[in-house]
What does this fold into?
Amino acid sequence: MALQDVLIDELRDMYSAENQLVKALPKLAKGAKDATLKQLFKDHLEETKGQVLRLREVFEHLGKKPTGQHCNGMEGVIEEGADALEKDEEGASFDAGLVGAALRTEHYEIAGYTACIAMAEQLELDDVVELLQANLDEEVAAAEKITDAAQPILEAANEQPEEEDEDEAPKTAKEKTSDRKSKADEKKASADVKKKR
Ligand SMILES: [Fe+2]
It folds into this structure.
């Protein structure tokens, strides 16, 4: 497969990822309790719509259609965000979970654009590089803004009294599956990890 074909696959992944975020960010904005965080999610939603349009321009330059690949990675990251939204934590602790989820989505995108830009540079696709760089710059800035906004939230969360119910046992079917899988992850890796010590 030629490098350009690999790049197009990666770009279709990014296009799907951005479109998925257009639907996910309003949920984070609605869920966020902190006003600054809520506004950041709303602002980044508008940016994300612009990023979708920029990616369409990229595909125009390449003479290809933008669809064709669903991004499973972003689907998973967004699902983790949905889990954070379902947590029955209070106030700042709840928002702290959203911060973790939001930063994961941004860094997933940063990784994707970084790889695409490196490929487009190699292919000397200057117009494509420029468009992708504009998206990357927005993702980096968004991650920084979320990290800054997180500081007072984390401080407040740290001052919240501990919940009465300290029972960590998984309750819902989803939590039970997640618990079982995490133990399987550990078990499968354990022999390899042991060798390292
Ligand atoms: Fe984005």
Q: What stands out?
A: Residues 3-159 form a domain with the Ferritin fold (CATH 1.20.1260.10).
